[in-house]
Each structure stands twice: as C-alpha cells, then as structure tokens.
Design a protein that fits this description.
With 293 residues, the chain is an alpha+beta fold. 14% of the residues lie in helices and 19% in strands. It has a domain of 154 residues. The chain has a five-stranded mixed beta sheet, covered by helices on one side. A three-stranded mixed beta sheet has the order 6-7-10, with no helix packed on it. The longest helix has 30 residues. The relative contact order is 0.10.
Length: 293
Amino acid sequence: MSNNHPPYGGQPDPNVTPWGGPPAQPAGYPAYGQPGYGQPGPPPQFAAPVPPPRKSNRGLIIGLAAGAVVVVLAICGAGIGLALVGNDDDPTPKVSGPASVSPSNGNPQPGTDNSAAPEPSESEEQPGSNDAVTARYSSDLSSVCDGSPILNAAAYSGPSGAKAYTFANSIERPTFWSTKSVSSEKPYYAKSADFESVSVVACLKVNEGSEGTPKKCDYKDNSGKRVSISYISSRYAMTFYAAKTGEKIGDGGTVNAPANRCPSFISYNKLTMRSYASPDSGTIEAALDKFLS
C-alpha cells in the first residue's frame, strides 16, 4: 500500500486504493470487548460463617492423671508392706567371708583368706648423700674428691672394665682439683665427653709438709725480663673412690712429684715466685694399672 496523495487539484490515481480506517460500528451498539449498557455486574460476595469454639479437655486430662498417681502410690505401699513382712522370717543376719581352698580337700572355706599379698614395686634410686651432685662436664667428677657423689656416673661393679678419671690438688690451691691425663691406650681411659661412663675417680691429695728443697729455675717472662722461680717437689696420697656413691674402694699408695729438672714450661705464683711440681704421670698409670687390672 502506498502513501502517495494526488497533487492539489489533481485526479486520484485509479490504480491506487485510497487509505482509510476501519469501518465504523453502527450507532446504538457497543464496541467489541466493552460491556453493554444496562448489563448486570458480578454478584455480591458474602463472608463465610464462623464455626463455634471447641470445648477444652483440660479437666478430663487432669482427672485421669490424678487417678494414675493414686494407683501408683497404692501399688508402692503394698510392695513395701510385703518386703517388711518377708524380712521377719530371718531376723539374724549372716556374715560371709572370702572363700579359700582347704588344704585337706581343696574346697573353699568361708572366713579365711590365703591370697598372697602383692609385691611392693621397686622404688626409684635415691641419692644416699645430701652432697650428691649431677655432673655436666668431665671436670665435675672432681667433686668426688671433696666428698660429693655423682648421681649420673656409672655404677662401680668391679675393677674389670671400669673407666677412671684422675684429679690432683696442690699446696697453694688445696681445694682446686686439676685433671691428670693418662694414655688413651689404657683400657680405663675415658674421653671427656664420656664422663657418664666413668665409675672410678682417683684423687691425689698433696701431703702437707712434704715439700722438698726448692730448685732454682731461670726463665724469661712475657716482657722478656729474666725471672728466677723456686721449683718445689712434694708427695701425694692416691685414693680410689666409686664415682656414683663416693665410697672409698682402694688405695693407690704414694705418688711423688719430683722437681729434679726444670720444666720447659712452668706456671708460677707471681707473688711468691714459686711453682710446685706435678705428680709423676708414670706412677699414676702404674697405680691405675694395678688397681683396675
């Protein structure tokens, strides 16, 4: 369909159908889809009737519960009465003891108990001395020479296979115990890290008044100045102790500290200009060999 219009004053094109709207409805009739005049509307709606309230059964339930309680109480009272009556048949109570086996016929006899008592458990080992200490280093085992057992030392069970440490004091330092080394080839030798394997401690205590005649030894100090040192001999008493208990287990005899030769290196007291000779290592090893063989 075309929207062309004839020019003003011209004739319409016979091949073109003129545009127009839909045909009009006849007068007096309503349009399609619209209610007609005078048509009735939907019927009026009315509310539904309310039902009457229900009756409560609370009173009936309470009555039934009360009746049940009364019945239960009556039954309990009857049971208690029967129990009291039944106990009157045997007024004397009987005491029974644990049964045991009779030695004659093997039957259990009342009133006897032949069961064995449980064995007490072994208590942990406790230190026997208030002076006992726990060693943290190998040098701590020197406390045995002062009378203190070592809690974590090995137990002494005999000389065979025992490991030993040796300590000695000096005249100028009687409370200080220095380590005396032995050959690592000895069976009783123990490394410093293996101090817990040591069960024997040998203590060399200097004998007071055993000093010999001083020997003069000349040296140069750190500044290059010449100094003269009195080198003094002495004697020691050697004693063996069990490291774990501190108990004396043997004597090692006398060990000399000779000062017949001036050592190449010497430690001395700068105030007294004296130095004391160390115990002879050969004598120490000989005493250990004899005791721990």
